[in-house]
Write a structure and sequence with these properties.
Elements lengths: L3 E5 L6 E5 L7 E3 L6 E7 L2 E5 H10 L2 H7 L2
Antiparallel strand pairs: 1-2, 3-4, 4-5
Amino acid sequence: MKSKKRVECPTCRNSFHLENWVKIGHQILCPHCEEMLEVVSQKPITLECVYASEFADIEEQDWLTDFSER
């Protein structure tokens, strides 16, 4: 059984090997673009940019809408 899986960085689209034992929530640095990535799914292993998800959370907050209405 292989201990590594080939995955693709969602930012730079380069692929690299990642250990199969990673769990959801683990953060990994892309060896190509040095973007911080988070494991969001295990089967298949799916990565998401850490900072993109933080900005998405901010955009969903009501205070941004309230501020623009003032």
